[in-house]
Amino acid sequence: MIESSPEFKVKWLTDIPNFPTDHVSTFDPRTIDIYHSNRVGLVNSLGVSEEHEALRNITWSAKELKPEYIQFDYTDVINNDDALLVALQQLKAYGFVFFRNITKGNENGPKAMGTRVGRLRDTFYGETWDVKSVAQAKNIAYTHQFLGFHMDLLYFADPPGYQMLHCIKNGCRGGESLFTDSFYAAEQMRLHHNDAWKILKDFKIGYHYRNAGEHYRYSHPVFKYRESLGRTGEKETLDVVNYSPPFQAPFVLRGGLGDSVNQAKFEEFRDALEIFQRLTEKRENIFEYKLAEGEMVLFNNRRVLHARNAFEPGDGERWLRGGYMDTDVVMSKLRTLTSDVKLDVEKWRKCAPECGAVQANLGLKYKGAKLETPANADMDEEIASRFPGYLL
Ligand SMILES: [Fe+2]
Fold this sequence. Notes:
Layout: E1 2-3, E2 8-10, E3 25-27, H1 29-36, H2 45-54, E4 71-73, H3 74-79, H4 81-94, E5 96-100, H5 109-117, E6 128-131, E7 147-150, E8 162-170, E9 177-181, H6 182-192, H7 194-202, E10 204-211, E11 214-221, E12 223-227, E13 236-241, H8 260-280, E14 286-289, E15 295-300, E16 304-308, E17 318-325, H9 327-340, H10 345-350, H11 357-361, H12 380-386
Parallel strand pairs: 4-5
Antiparallel strand pairs: 1-2, 2-3, 5-15, 6-17, 7-16, 8-15, 8-17, 9-14, 9-16, 10-11, 12-13
Bound molecules: fe (ii) ion.
The site of fe (ii) ion has 4 residues, from loops.
C-alpha cells in the first residue's frame, strides 16, 4: 500500500520479521524520483558518487605543486568550518596539507585534529605516538638513519588512510621530510610502461611485523584499482597504492630453487617495481620540507609516500608526534561539510582546486611565511646516494 503526498509511505506486505505490525517506511519523493528516472538500467547509485570523488584527485610532480595550495593556519582550521572544508578539499586533491602556527605548549596536534575531523584510528602504537630517536629502536623510524619512501602499517588488512605528524621539536641538523605522489608514478607507468603497470596490479607483496608480542601480516598488490570511469575515459580509477619496502616480508618460490616459472615471474615483477621506484624517487617528483616546530603535516597514507633524511642526533632534540585517521572518517567530514557549509557556490565552482584560488576566494590567507622547498636542482646525485634501492 503506497501513499504519495507529501511523502511516500509504504506499508510492506512482507516486512522484516518481528517488526511491529504498524511499521511504515517513509521516503522523500525527490529521492524516489531520482531512482525512477534512472534510464540506464540497474547501477550502483553510490558508485556514481565514488567516481565523482575519485576525479577530485590531482596528481603532481613536485615541480608543478605550489606550496601555497596546501598550507593552512592551524587555528583557522580548528575553529572555522570554511577553513577545514577547504583544507580537506585540498587534502583530497593533492594527498597532503600542512598546518602551521600550532601554539607552543600544544603537544598534541594529532589528537586535536583527529577530534576536529572525527576520530583517531587506534593501533598497537596507541591513538597517538612519538617519533624520537631511541637506543636499540624496534622500528627504523625511531633511529636517526635515513628512512626511505614507504607507507605505514601495510601489514594490516586495512591500513590507516591518513597520517598526521606534528613537529614539536626539530633542533637537529637534517631530518627533512620527503613526499612523493605514488598516484602520479602509477599514471606515468600506465601511460609509458604499460606491461610493467599491469604486473604491479596483479603481483602481491607480503608485509609483516613481528615484534614485542605483536604479529601482523598481510599481502597487497602495489596498485589497487576500482571499477569506475576515470578522468580520461578509462574504465577504472586508482583506489590505493601499497608500497613499503622497509616492512616487506621475504618472497618464497613455491617450487624451491628449481622453480624457474616463478623465478621468471618474480624477476618480471622486480623489474616492474624498479620502474615504479625510480619514478617515485626522481628528484623532480620529490617534495622536500623540513617541518618546523609548531607545524603538522596530514597526508594520505595510501597515496603519498613519505621518507625522512638522516639527522644528527647529537645536535639537538627531534620529536614528532603522530596519529592516524581512517579514510571513511576524513571523507565523512568532507562530505558533511560540503553539504552543510554555505560557501559562495559560484566562486567555488569557478575555482578548480589546482588554480590555488580557493583559499584566496574564501579570504583564508595564510598568516605566516611561505613554505619553502630547497631550490637546489642539482641534488639528483645526492638523492640517488640516499636511496640505495631496496630491491637492487
Ligand atoms: Fe612512516
